[in-house]
Known about the structure:
Low-confidence stretches: 1-17, 185-193
Mean pLDDT: 81
Largest sheet: 9 strands, antiparallel
CATH topology of the largest domain: Cathepsin B, Chain A
Radius of gyration: 25 Å
Number of helices: 8
CATH class of the largest domain: Alpha Beta
Strand order of the largest sheet: 4-3-2-1-11-10-9-8-7
Amino acid sequence: xxxxxxxxxxxxxxxxxxxxxxxxxxxxxxxxxxxxxxxxxxxxxxxxxxxxxxxxxxxxxxxxxxxxxxxxxxxxxxxxxxxxxxxxxxxxxxxxxxxxxxxxxxxxxxxxxxxxxxxxxxxxxxxxxxxxxxxxxxxxxxxxxxxxxxxxxxxxxxxxxxxxxxxxxxxxxxxxxxxxxxxxxxxxxxxxxxxxxxxxxxxxxxxxxxxxxxxxxxxxxxxxxxxxxxxxxxxxxxxxxxxxxxxxxxxxxxxxxxxxxxxxxxxxxxxxxxxxxxxxxxxxxxxxxxxxxxxxxxxxxxxxxxxxxxxxxxxxxxxxxxxxxxxxxxxxxxxxxxxxxxxxxxxxxxxxxxxxxxxxxxxxxxxxxxxxxxxxxxxxxxxxxxxxxxxxxxxxxxxxxxxxxxxxxxxxxxxxxxxxxxxxxxxxxxxxxxxxxxxxxxxxxxxxxxxxxxxxxxxxx
Length: 461
């Protein structure tokens, strides 16, 4: 009898020891409604309030009670209110997945998270869970199991999120598809993350010209170029696009600012740089769609043929969201005249030598890259590199190319990229990637710069 009792006690102890905490199911039959407040980790003043409805594979979301995104079970569609009309896209608008993935997974697929210890969240005793693949930490109330919130650590957008309410059921009509989106798959252009990719043939048809150079001049180029400092500073400060897929606008403004600084002098006042928000708000939908992506090179060609003046950042500041075009409210004295940008040039695809020549002789270049390849978003190499190949259909991010050189420690040739994910990313907002190694990350796939009329340069000061 003593042996039986002892065995029962041992089994009971083992059972208690193996009872690892887990996140209880938050939704009934995969249906629920919840509200989340999202706070940008490095800028607590920046926050969004999201209301999410889930019904199995369908999810709709309201952002700040206004912009409505939705996914339908039959086919993926995102619709969003833009002023007085609805715009649609079959691809994930930059920021939607990163913002919503953590919340969807934590309440809909809690079994994907692994218990990592006890902690506190907003002062409440909580169990901490982690999902390595997605880089998401979730906290659940230790006594009730209710998801309290967590953190997501996407490279460009790191947030803390607070779940303020979870309830069963859905908001009525949460999943109704706007009629404007009925043919979105047939009509919408392919979109990749925060850019809208135009082929070189399309760019040339718009009037963009190929960049040409004399190959004999390559031997005379400097061993290294750095447009970010000193007397040759032509690059704007490192900026932060925040919770908005506006990398294309940041890249476009960066290359344009470089051309302005060549004329005005190194260290030209950044408050007079062209407005990022202007390109986002005013470009036509086939060129750019605000936080939902755009094309840094074709936007130059568009503005060259438009009647719009280009306002300064001071007069038309970045809002990190979509707005109506309000350029007509900006006084001319705070703008570059409409004839200031006369066109654009694009580097022949894949020609790193041409990129080097343009970068050394023209200035910073707007480029599109495959940022999802290994070694870019995270890594500790002096010079980032990947064995994966960047293809046109994977171009997903626009950045500013600001220099090149040879690493003193490894002897590797590299490009210097300025990103728009704040100065807290990688090396104070910069990354060096391998040069002349098969076009790493697609550096030379879509690189270009604006052509300007220096005689139209205004004098702001």
